[in-house]
């Protein structure tokens, strides 16, 4: 059975590229375009990985991560334009598994 990945990204171009590459690699991909939808989808689905942006509408990615971590240890890759050390440290304090800054190479995923 293919692994399921939740991509949480409000930028259409970015989530389309990520989704296409992951699907071509054999993964099942679902997309959430805001933090509230991401939490709802996470709770309904059984995901093997979450790719999570920080700057999202409704609920930011740090809050989404905090909510998910209270309920699951699913791997989370934070993918964001926030490249300051303090932002990266905050991500790791919230127990993300990796922190990738934009722009990024799709090969890093």
UniProtKB/TrEMBL annotation:
Gene Ontology BP term (one): regulation of DNA-templated transcription
Response regulatory domain boundaries: 4-109
Entry GO terms, CC: cytosol; protein-DNA complex
GO MF annotations, alphabetized: phosphorelay response regulator activity; transcription cis-regulatory region binding
UniProt entry tagged with the keyword Kinase: no
Chain positions found as 4-aspartylphosphate: 53
Name this protein carries in UniProt: Stage 0 sporulation protein A homolog
Species for this entry: Clostridium botulinum CFSAN001627
